[in-house]
Automatic annotation (TrEMBL):
Predominant subcellular localization, coarse grouping: membrane
This protein's name: Phospholipid/glycerol acyltransferase domain-containing protein
Pathway this chain belongs to: Lipid metabolism
An individual GO BP term: phospholipid biosynthetic process
Annotated GO CC locations: membrane
SUPFAM superfamilies per UniProt: Glycerol-3-phosphate (1)-acyltransferase
Record keywords: Acyltransferase, Lipid biosynthesis, Lipid metabolism, Membrane, Phospholipid biosynthesis, Phospholipid metabolism, Transferase, Transmembrane, Transmembrane helix
CDD domains: LPLAT_LPCAT1-like (cd07991)
Subcellular location: Membrane
Lineage: Eukaryota, Viridiplantae, Streptophyta, Embryophyta, Tracheophyta
Single GO MF descriptor: acyltransferase activity, transferring groups other than amino-acyl groups
């Protein structure tokens, strides 16, 4: 009984941290002693950094948990289970992993032997070439999923090629794209990556109309916005896929959706993705792990279990802003996948506000407290 109560208290505290209310951390009106003199803004500014630091610690705890990978609880803790765990390690690393490497290598041989001569043999026949390229990209993605022993269940109608529509999904790892791509050859909006992933982006994935950007380049936003509008108007372009969170989240939460995908004046088709962590956590923390190591982690696990739901297409309602539209779609995805909505911008994972911005926030914070105290 006590353990159940403890779990309830823990879950309640997590929920409160997901939606922190700064008023909960301020003293009540009855506990505030009346000031002897007139309370000035300068007095509050002196303690504002301390107050904002305390509030920031509360916010940070709620924000950073969206990007933490929760390690599985160890089960090989006694003399009976440890031998079974050792046998599992031997099977996964010495049997399954080599077989999966062979499977993936075989897929690449088939893919490259068809993809490379395709461009020289079908010059001037763009329509046929694009159709074959779609099939080849779907095929190599299927080999990738097979190399993890992927168990993926798809719910809802398969995406089709239509103008003026865009697909949006929650984002856990770069494998989200692979899981979706094996069913439909999407053109995806993705961060430009270095190494072998960048090579694939600039060659193979470029053929299906994918669009790349760099977060550090401000001008890339204008270029990408223009390419997005041009792509959704094309009648023969591959379906456009966007991950509006802009970063990988640990599949327990959804952070704020960027409004760009919801300003295109087209139909938005939500996709909800949920990974079962029974065998492996599919979350990719790009700041701590390369994508190569992430793939190795998946290939040495028992299986990757995933559910994908293609939800009902949505259009913007009369009087609804792009931000409200994005939040409505985020709510649909969160509800279907069983994820918690949090009011944070995912880009804060990569950058923090400047000192001048923090000072302005401190002054605004102090002014709001002063106004509240004067009203009481």
């Amino acid at each position: 009984m006590s353990s159940t109560a403890g779990k309830l208290v823990t879950s309640r505290s997590e929920l409160e941290l997901d939606h922190p209310n700064i008023e909960d951390y301020l003293p009540s009106g009855s506990s505030i002693n009346e000031p002897r003199g007139k309370l000035r803004l300068r007095d509050l500014l002196d303690i504002s950094p301390t107050l904002t630091e305390a509030a920031g610690a509360i916010v940070d705890d709620s924000f950073t948990r969206c990007f933490k990978s929760n390690p599985p609880e160890p089960w090989n803790w006694n003399i009976y289970l440890f031998p079974l765990w050792c046998c599992g390690v031997v099977v996964r690393y010495c049997l399954l992993f080599p077989l999966r490497c062979i499977t993936l290598a075989f897929g690449w041989i088939i893919f490259l032997s068809a993809f490379i001569p395709l461009h020289s043999l079908l010059k001037g026949q763009d329509r046929l070439r694009k159709k074959i390229e779609r099939v080849l990209v779907e095929m190599i993605c299927s080999f990738f999923v097979a190399s993890w022993t992927g168990v993926v269940r798809y719910h809802g109608p398969r995406p089709s090629i239509r103008p003026k529509q865009v697909y949006v999904a929650n984002h856990t790892s770069m494998i989200d794209f692979i899981v979706l791509e094996q069913m439909t050859a999407f053109a995806v909006i993705m961060q430009k990556h270095p190494g072998w992933v960048g090579l694939l982006q600039s060659t193979i994935l470029e053929s299906v109309g994918c669009i790349w950007f760099n977060r550090s380049e401000a001008k890339d936003r204008e270029i990408v916005a223009r390419k997005l509008r041009d792509h959704v108007l094309g009648t023969d372009n591959n379906p456009l896929l966007i991950f509006p969170e802009g970063t990988c989240v640990n599949n327990n939460y959804t952070v704020m959706f960027k409004k760009g995908a919801f300003e295109l004046d087209c139909t938005v088709c939500p996709i909800a993705i949920k990974y079962n962590k029974i065998f492996v956590d599919a979350f990719w923390n790009s700041r701590k792990q390369s994508f190569t190591m992430h793939l190795l982690q998946l290939m040495t696990s028992w299986a990757v279990v995933c559910e994908v739901w293609y939800l009902e297409p949505q259009t913007i309602r009369p009087g609804e802003t792009a931000i409200e539209f994005a939040e409505r779609v985020r709510g649909m995805i969160s509800h279907r996948a069983g994820l918690k909505k949090v009011p944070w911008d995912g880009y804060l994972k990569y950058s923090r506000p400047s000192s001048k911005h923090s000072e302005r926030k401190q002054q605004s914070f102090a002014e709001s407290i002063l106004a509240r105290l004067e009203d009481k």
